[in-house]
Structure formats: C-alpha cells, structure tokens
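Summary for the steering committee. One of the milestones for this cycle was to obtain a three-dimensional model of the protein with beta-D-mannopyranose bound, which we needed before selecting residues for the alanine scan. The sequence and ligand used are listed below.
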Amino acid sequence: MSTPLTLKRYRGNPILMPSLINEWESDNVFNAAVVERDGLVYMLYRAQGLDRVSRIGCAVSTDGLHFNRLKEPVFVPEEDYEEYGVEDPRVTYLDGWYYMLYTAFSPIGTRVAMARSRNLIGWERMGIVLPDENNKDAALFPRKIKGRYAMFHRRKPDMWIAYSDDLLHWTDHQIVMSPRPGLWDGVRIGAGGPPFYTDAGWLTFYHGFGEARIYCLGVALLDLEDPTRVLKRQAEPVLCPRAPWEEVGDVPNVVFSCGGIEREDEYLIYYGGADHVMAVARVTRGEAMALAIASKQDVAAFIES
Ligand code: BMA
C-alpha cells in the first residue's frame, strides 16, 4: 500500500476530561465504549476518582463530538471479583441487547466479565465469562459467525478469538494475531473495540506496544468466516501518542481504544489519551477500504512471484 492508513484527530480534542465536580471521575476518564442509538451517541467511559477505583460513567451527544455527562456512574463495582474496579468497557449491539464486556479487577486478578442492557443506562450482570484466567481486552463481534457468537480476548501477548452458543460458555480459543518483534507492536497486542463488519472483511483496530512501551493503534482486515485468517495487517500504526494529552497523563504515551462508530462515509474511533482523557479521530470509509485493495494486491504479488 502506498500511503498507510492513518487516523485524523478531531481538532476539538480532548472531548471529555476529568470532572472536579464529581469525585468518582475527578482523576481520569478514558478507554470508553461508544455506541449510536436513535440518533444519540452514548459514551460509556472508565472513570477514576481519588480512591482509584474504576467505575463506568455515561455521556451523551447529538454529534459524537460534544458530550453531556450523567452525574452518577451507570455501572459500579458490586461483586467481589470487581473489588478494585470495572475497567475498559466494550459494547456491542446484538439481537435487541447491548452487551458490555469489561475487565473485572480484584485481588484474584483481571477477569473478563459481561453485562447487558436494553438502554445503555441500566445494566444487569451476566458474570465472569472467562473464568480462572487473567485476561482482558475482550470485545464481542456484532454478528454471529457460522451460527455462533464470537469474541476477541487477550492471552498475553496475543490477540485471541473464542466462540459460544450462549454468550456464557466460550470454547474453540484460537490466536488471531501476535506481536511482530522489532515493530511498534512487537511486545504485546490486544483488541480495540468490536470489529466493524465490511463486505471485504472485519475491519479491526487494535492496540499494541513495542520495547519502548508506547501504546499505539493499528489496523487489520480479518476474514469474515474465519477471523484467524488475517487478510491484511498494516505494518505502520494508524495512531501513536503525539498530542500533549496523549504523551502526558496518568500513564504516559498511551492511545487506547475500546470502540468507535460508523457513519455514512467515515469511522469515528474513540480513544483514551495517556489514561487520563477521551479523544476521537476519524478515517473515511474509502481510506479504510484501501486495506482491502492492498490485501488483494498482496495476493496478486504472491501468485506472480
Ligand atoms: C492496559 C489497560 C488499559 C490501559 C493500558 C495503558 O493494560 O490497563 O486500561 O489504558 O494498559 O496503561
């Protein structure tokens, strides 16, 4: 591919910052799931206050850029397995429900847990879905694959997929992508938000870091029927920390996405900057589909060689 795909930052970033008015979100607001529903954009963001416990707040917008927050968090730790916090929500709409996969953090470690909602405000717990293992970065696919639910998850240092008939029991675990030693994502990778369905494949944004521990975002296109078949994975990252609020914050040099939305002609990718604020960047559908063209060119070059 001649010009690598890159995300263009919105000039008005950051779009959400900690609020000194609400103690529970006075320290950091970051790593949000974002969903469009009936013309409104809902941002479900991870928030930390002085107690450093992660809770999930909700902010609503008509344009996806300017948000009004609810005063109280919509999801807070209640179970033993969430004692230290509920982190990094990723939300998928499927069959009339919004499903949230999140990291439940407690003295036993990090577990992938699930909750569901009809309206994005009231949530009911479904429990831990990947028991007995430290895991995170889970995201549910927005469609079933060959009749089964599918989700990304992360067994260090790789990005994995698993399948389920009932959303509660997950089997058939397989690696989707691994770090690429020597590149920006050479040490550890994990899913961004749920992948976007396109005719050419699952458009997948993910995070990764290399030896310098700079968290960047990358992009790949995965086969619709078997996402472990990587049709294209761009060598270059699509976004790396460069703005001051990406380089300096609670954890320096981090851009970390838990999801985005698709519009008629573009994708809006939301991300946390330095584990401290929320921001958004965009890429047009045309630019994103250059990945599909590049994957076909790779195949053609391979056949000719
Ligand atoms: C990961 C997660 C994210 C965080 C990132 C960078 O392990 O904890 O929530 O944004 O590290 O600190």
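Key point for the committee: Residues 8-304 form a domain with the Tachylectin-2; Chain A fold (CATH 2.115.10.20).
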